[in-house]
Amino acid sequence: MKVFGIGVGKGKGFLGVYAVNFYKEGEIVMDLSMGDVSPMRDLRTIELSSRHIDHPFGRYVNHHCDPSCYIDQTRELMIALIDINIGDEITFDYSLNESTIAAPFECSCGASHCKGVISK
Ligand SMILES: [Zn+2]
Fold it and tell me: What is the pTM of this model?
């Protein structure tokens, strides 16, 4: 596992997480079990079973309807869905992971099958 393979930077005018190493499809991008357990869901947390994790990098990962990663709930890991090159944004689909979206928003990811408003 590459511990320092991710960095926080500004992409589309807001913070996001970008790869500073290459990740092969299926590779571990982030160990979410290293994050703090938050008492409640908020804009920064990632849901793992019934817990809400505030991870120092995970909190900056943006939503995408055609994401580069997914959350493996059992192993508590963020895994590359595709090969991720240096400079590519690390994203996951919030609507597939969260049972409730803390703050619904209109998605502007640009995916051809963009879901539009992300809410639950
Ligand atoms: Zn979208």
Answer: 0.91
